[in-house]
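Re-run with default settings, no changes from the original entry. Doing this only to confirm the output is reproducible before filing.
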Amino acid sequence: MRASVQLRTMLRYRSVRSAPYSSGFFAGGLGIVALGVFGVFAIKGQVKYDQLSETCAPRCNPDDKREVDRDFVVADVALTVGVVSLVTSGARRLSGRRHGGGRCALHHHARAGGARGAARIQRALHGDRVVGEVG
């Protein structure tokens, strides 16, 4: 009975380990998408800019100028979001490895053989919610 409680407690709290990794993957995915948006709007804005400079510069329609400016602003914001997201993703991944892969103290305590102590730590961390019975 006691071994099964320890096993259930360890399995429950092993899922905590994936938190830095999943948020890191989310931030990385967001960064890749943002860099794609940056590429599309930067190219689109540059093509329009080149067309305007060949055809009507310096007396171009203000609406056309605004459209080019908007494309460049969207590209700049997307580049910023992309870089920040990729840096955040890397930091989350590295911080998870540096601290033992994101394992919590409860996992280590339960693995050392203290099911009652593990439940005590669990209550301290999460209130009265207990995973499994301690007996």
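The CA atoms of residues 10 and 111 lie 7 Å apart. The helical segments are 2-14, 19-55, 62-98, 105-111, 115-126.
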